[in-house]
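This entry is retained here.
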Amino acid sequence: MSTLTKPKSVPEPVAVTVTDDTLSVDLADGRTIAVPVDWFPRLRHGTTKERENFDLSFAGIHWPDLDEDISIEGLLNGEKSGESPKSIRRWLDHRSRGEKVPVKTLALPNWAKDSTKPRRPKRKK
């Protein structure tokens, strides 16, 4: 016996509103998702100007001034921010000094450092 499975589709966001209490997202299929802004500490601490500066993509919303990304699928599933309290404290500390949190970078492997010669790492036999 076979079962019919419906493909999973996530509607695209078409509008966003952030108040002191609520994050509301209008979707292309006519639905509106509204969740407490407290679910997303960076939005809660953001200024009105920072909250109004966002980019919409098929998958979600990005606030460049707050370094916040929220997926539509996550909102539909009722998922809150997964950021740790330690990370939020570090972000708020940098923010209070007018700095951005530095992004950790990893050193390139030796084989990738010479950009003039595209190579692949050697396979071990």
The helical segments are 41-45, 48-52, 72-76, 85-96, 110-113.
